[in-house]
Automatic annotation (TrEMBL):
Pfam families: Thioredoxin. Residues 1-20 form the signal peptide. Keywords: Signal. It comes from Pedobacter cryoconitis. Residues 28-174 form the Thioredoxin domain. This is Thioredoxin.
Length: 360
């Protein structure tokens, strides 16, 4: 395992950024010709048989079981109305559960009414799941593909679609740069998965439990954890703020030098990972989870509350239901920080938001 990872480190060190895509296989990407539409049934709107030249198509992939997909449908419909004369909007059901009849999908779409006011289709034999979502390494659904003149101009989360579409329409969009950015994000994601496994292997040891005749996993000393992390980050600096390294380094710093733990969280709050925003809620999770195991300084709890607010400020869909919960987490963090006034204010914001949201 060690030799394998050392080779991996070497490859990553010489191949980061522009050539990062060579380390993994992306079968479909920005700039590639769009695969054909494979739809077995159109349940709403005018059927689309193929992509026409010089036309723009915005394709939202969803499924009936996907709660975020359904919650975002009204936003997608508003986007479709906004650009109805400039692009064609499609919602294609993929990854559907086995044996869900077309009639049931159609009934759900019909019940959505104007909240799902786009052309809706159901994929044929998992072909769009396979040829679009899977091969492009899309991270689940909802995911949007924008096809322009038969080529894929963008792949991403619905919250960025409006901004991207504006740039495509005003001719300022650079798909080649978007492809490089996406390659880098996918590279960092794969790097996180690979290196986190190695990190776990190197920061735990196993001791035999004579009573139970089993092996117990025991974490090594925090200063040793930091030495291992520093060694890995020295070889690949981009590891520093990947999620797997944050959740390992933060508690180790907390035990050895709380001020460095504070500085680390502050820096992580300003550093996007392989998503477009910093990992605000990951940092909140790390603070909350470790507060049950060790002493956390008040100033770090305050940072956690700031992370909650930063996440709320960056969320384009507050009505989906996570805002109220995040305000409650903020209140709890302020209580731990000893700031009862701000805790009460956050609790009130959670109540106010719930009342306002429930009216709609």
């Amino acid at each position: 395992m060690k030799c394998k990872f050392q080779l991996f480190i070497f490859l990553c060190t010489i191949s980061f950024n522009i050539n990062a895509q060579s380390l993994f296989n992306i079968g479909l990407n920005i700039g590639d010709p769009a695969p054909p539409l494979k739809v077995k049934a159109w349940v709403k709107g005018k059927p689309i048989q193929k992509f026409e030249k010089d036309k723009i198509y915005v394709i939202d992939f969803w499924a009936t079981w996907c709660i975020p997909c359904m919650a975002l449908m009204p936003h997608f419909s508003k986007l479709a109305h906004k650009y109805q004369d400039k692009a064609t909007f499609l919602s294609i059901d993929i990854y559907e559960k086995e044996n869900v009849p077309i009639a049931k999908i159609k009934k759900l779409v019909d019940n959505m009414g104007d909240r799902m006011d786009v052309t809706v289709g159901v994929e044929e034999n998992k072909l769009m799941s396979k040829n679009w979502a899977d091969t492009s390494k899309a991270k689940g659904i909802p995911t949007i593909f924008i096809v322009n003149d038969g080529k894929i101009d963008w792949i991403g989360h619905p919250k960025y679609a409006d901004s991207v579409l504006k740039q495509i329409l005003n001719k300022t969009w650079r798909p080649e740069l978007a492809r490089l950015k996406r390659n880098n994000q996918l590279y960092l994601y794969d790097l996180d998965m690979e290196s986190t496994g190695e990190l776990v292997d190197r920061t735990y040891r196993y001791e035999i439990n004579m009573a139970g005749n089993t092996y117990d996993r025991v974490e090594i000393r925090p200063d040793s954890v930091l030495l291992i992390i520093d060694e890995m980050v020295k070889n690949i600096p981009s590891l520093k703020f990947l999620p797997g390294f944050i959740v390992s380094k933060f508690p180790a710093l907390l035990q050895t030098d709380p001020q460095k733990a504070y500085d680390f969280v502050r820096e992580a709050m300003a550093t996007p990972s392989y998503y477009d925003e910093p990992p605000y809620l990951l940092l909140v999770n790390a603070i909350e989870e470790n507060s049950d195991k060790m002493k956390v300084p008040e100033n770090i709890f305050r940072l956690g509350a700031e992370c909650c607010q930063a996440w709320i400020d960056s969320d384009p869909y507050p009505e989906l239901g996570f805002t109220s919960t995040t305000y409650k987490r903020m209140a709890n963090l302020y209580r731990h920080a000893g700031d009862l006034q701000k805790a009460a204010e956050a609790e009130q914001k959670a109540k106010d938001f719930s009342l306002t949201n429930n009216k709609h």
